[in-house]
Amino acid sequence: MAGVSIATVSRVINNSKPVNHDVRIRVLKAMEQTNFLPNAMARNLAKKESLLLGVMVPEVKNTVLDDLINGINQVSRLYGYNIMLSLTAGTLENELHYFNMFREIQADGIILASENLKEELVKGIKVSNIPLILVGRDSLDTVPTVHVDNVTAAYEAVTYLIQQGHRKIAMLRVRSGDIASGDHRYQGYVRALNEAGISIYKDWVVESGISVEDGITSMRKICEAESMPTAIFCATDRIAIGAMNYLLEIGLRVPEDVSIFGFDGIDMSSFIRPKLSTVKYSAEEIGMTAARNLIKLIRGEEISSRHWIVSHYLENRDSVCTLN
To answer: Is residue 112 part of a domain?
Structure first.
């Protein structure tokens, strides 16, 4: 229709080489008349790059993962990459499915948030040689990671409660097997109590899901124990918010009767009343760091490390009181 060669059409579409103005206009008009769109997959195959990053997360439901994805997207767009998001529900079956899907569509790299990186997936990562960065937790494998120091952060939070005079400290923890929110934050809790010479009362350690509703259910179990703690360390802010709601519903005051400390620093933690004390860090920074270094790996550039830890601090607000 334009009366030019395939190579000239390619130059116009990709703006790869100079083309005479009149010829360019003829090609663009032909594209408009036929509603033509370039085949991105074919073009990327020819270039041996897709400019696509796969992002695998368990869920997006008002959690720190929302900020994580935002950070990934900011950096990806800056470098000309698009992201494709998949929700794995945290299951190995789904992780393997989406990992293989991203390989099939030739994504340039993958960012993965996984509660418990299974050996089957690690093998797939090593065999495929596709650049991948794990976010949210550390890894003993060779997989690069970006995360907060969950053990140290939890230790500091519980130590703060001890410094405020609390010795009856419970924990609403995420289930065993969730490495970061579950096992590592529990390790920090145990370490703080052990160093202070405080015994761990098994009825005061309750496994919980990560939702507000789970926090309500788990807090009910604490209240059914023979004695009541004066402070509760919660593995996530959403659990903490659920715990606070349950205490208020049964007539207990926060922090006068029971102090509550959360983890993650989600926006809602500063809007509820009393404002929730929490371990605060930037999930957006985790996402930005992961995307930036993944793109370096894709391009074959040197990276400063294989494991990056983002900073955290204690946001001490209104949900913790000092005991005399």
So the answer is: yes
- Whether residue 88 is predicted with pLDDT greater than 90 in this model: the reply is yes
Strands (E), 241-281: 259-264, 277-281
Q: Residue 48: its pLDDT value, please?
A: 61
In a domain, 306, yes or no: yes
- Is 255 found in the same domain as 300? no
| CATH of residue 268 | 3.40.50.2300
pLDDT band at 80 (very low <50, low <70, confident <90, very high): very high
Contact between 12 and 28 under an 8 Å Cβ cutoff? The reply is: yes
The reply to whether 46 falls in a domain is no
Looking at the chain, list the stretches that DSSP marks H as alpha helix, in order from N- to C-terminal side. 6-14, 21-34, 40-47, 64-78, 92-104, 119-128, 150-163, 185-195, 212-223, 237-249, 283-298
Q: How far apart are CA 190 and CA 206, in angstroms?
A: 13
Q: Whole-angstrom Cα distance, residue 288 to residue 82?
A: 14
Q: Which two tokens stand for residue 43?
A: 């073009």
Distance between CA atoms of residues 136 and 287, nearest Å: 9
Backbone angles phi, psi at 34, to 5 degrees: -100, 0
Extract the tokens encoding 17: 């080489």
State the average pLDDT over residues 29-55.
74
Reference 271, options 318, 204, 215; nearest CA is 318
Range of the domain at 202: 150-282
Phi, psi of 39 (to 5 degrees): -80, 100
Cβ-based neighbours of 69, under 8 Å, separated by 6 or more: 55, 57, 60, 83, 85, 287
DSSP assignment string, 33-64: HHT----HHHHHHHHT---EEEEEES--SSSH
The burial class, CB within 10 Å (0-12 / 13-18 / 19+), for 212 is buried
Q: Do residues 120 and 158 share a domain?
A: no
pTM of the model: 0.84
The pLDDT of residue 173 is above 90: yes
pLDDT at position 18 = 84
**Token output for 16:** 């790869």
What is the token pair recorded at 213? 């509703």
